[in-house]
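Review form for a predicted model. The reviewer records the input and the model, then writes brief findings.
Reviewer: anonymous (R2)
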Amino acid sequence: MTEFESIYNQYFREVYLFVLKLSRNEKIAEEITQETFFKALKGIDKFQGYCKINVWLCQIAKNTYFTYLNKQKRYDTEEIEDITGENIIETLILKKEETFRIHKVLHSLDEPYKEVFTLRIFGELSFKQISELFERTESWARVTFYRGKQKIQEMLREE
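Model under review:
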């Protein structure tokens, strides 16, 4: 068994469950997890050991999932054609713009605030799990999340 096969066997379930929490869809979670390990295999020489291998894999998985989301159409064109009221369409457009605005602000947030916020909100990880990923205390995870949330709110007010 190669070293990468060992990594795959050891961390597949953890990465899969992480993506499943993000996507809430088993099929998507399987696809993203496979893509994650493919990217990890191609870029294993880029892993410098600054974090645990499972944190690195989850970062790849998170980025792969968000790339997947960006490629997907937010709304099926048939679904929009079925909507008759102009107010509903305006609401959908405004919601999409607000989502983009929040995503843009989140993307510009510094690390570790961005990562902790993403893991907590989108990954639905507990502060304990986040602290373990970063090899920090649970209170560090709470404070970092709170500060990240404050920074996001501040940036949204400034726009």
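Findings: The helical segments are 3-23, 26-42, 53-71, 77-82, 86-108, 113-121, 127-134, 138-158.
Further findings: The longest helix spans residues 86-108.
Recommendation: see findings above.
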